[in-house]
Amino acid sequence: MAEQSNNLMPVDQEPKGLGSRICKAIMGVRWKVNWFVLLGLVVVGILFYMLTSSQLIDGAGSLRWKPVGLQGDGHTGHHMYSTWPDFDTEPFINKAFFKGKCAPIINYTMSNLVQVKKQWAVTKDLKCRELYEKFVSIFSFEARDAPLKLPTKFMTKLKHWLGDSDELLQQAYNQEVIHVVSEYTREHTIFNSLRDKRPVLPPAESEDEYFNKLLAETAKNCDFCNYKENTAEHIFGRLESKHSFTASNAFKLDTLHALVAPKKHDPLHWTLEEFLDLFGLVGSWLKKAHAYYPNAKFPSLIWDVLPKCGASQVHPHLHVMLDPERYHGQIEAWREGAEDYDRDHGNNYFTDMVNIYSALNLTVARGSAVAFANLVKCFSMGMGLPPIDVEEGKMPAYARIITRGYVTDIRTDISSLELFMAASVNIDPYKTMHTIRQYIEETNLNT
Ligand SMILES: *[C@@H]1O[C@H](CO)[C@@H](O)[C@H](O)[C@H]1NC(C)=O
Ligand SMILES: *[C@@H]1O[C@H](CO)[C@@H](O)[C@H](O)[C@H]1NC(C)=O
Ligand SMILES: [Zn+2]
């Protein structure tokens, strides 16, 4: 009897006895039957698609579902590009004028940009208006209240994280989160100013100690220190300069995938001369590669330093690609954004970005180079150089650079948040700019 009552157990309860096992087996057979039916339907579906689609495609010329922009001019990949107005770093509005006329606000900080935007939105001056329209067309910039409740015990802990400051604790109850979306490149960045106000705790292990140990260990068997024997070359040969050399990546990501590296093993201590020499060699390699493969036109460059940032070798090395169709990955997305911007406004996207950042006092200019504290995320360094012999969609040399935090910190700064959603940025870009300005002054970097 006990067996029988077992047999009557509902299937969603713990299956224990023999009966329920049989029951599960029968269910299994039923499932298999269902799978066969489903599989059959899928096969029929695929056959149907193959039979009908042969009428849809007879050569690329008559693709029925042509991607937008696939007009195939043969030079610029699949996206159609036009010739943009020249890139120009001369600011449209002087920053003192901006501060006086467009947004006569107190202190410029990331949090205050919310107030800046409000004042700027109602400005009467025509130049201010024109720049405002560019700003809101490129960026969605929005502050959101994020209040919270805290149990006493956790409140004490949080206050401690905030350096035991009552003022910061008050701010913690009523946080403000700023969302910046770059509308043309679909990048989403979030600033929470409270994170920037936390006291910075030094890492447990000294960075110097870590670095020196790593440097000594890796220098012993470094392939790049003995590049002539231990690195591959492109078939058109290797280039060398006083301080740098080129190699071909052994496991290539493209026909033209070079490593350009200084001869010195140390990735942190450089002279300006060594740095310029390295980038000079990047230019020479691109020229040579283009001469050898005239169709290769789109140069991009990436650089990670030290394992914390994903560098595979401690010896510093840049990856340089020269592609015949398009820039690699995200860099082409910047270019596409700029193309869409040109179509919408008839202006050079990069020029207008410089105009906006300059008005907001977030730039430093030296000659024809401008550095700005980007409102969108950056990681390590990624750079697109102007295309070679192409007038359409002509990017200026545009690099995004950021430090990745303490080298001794084992936590990664890229998680699913950054990969799939928005990057969370803790540092006020005005602080970043301040640091850069100071650095330029201290080092007298005037070239
Ligand atoms: C721009 O910022 C710097 C600080 O980095 C400040 O000294 C300068 O006065 C600011 N310029 C204007 C016009 O607000
Ligand atoms: C501007 O910022 C400085 C430094 O953070 C501060 O001392 C000053 O009170 C601020 N001024 C206003 C009007 O908020
Ligand atoms: Zn080395």
From TrEMBL:
TM annotation in the entry: 33-51
Keywords of the record: Membrane, Transmembrane, Transmembrane helix
InterPro entries the record matches: HIT-like_sf
Domain of life where this protein originates: Eukaryota
Protein name per UniProt: Uncharacterized protein
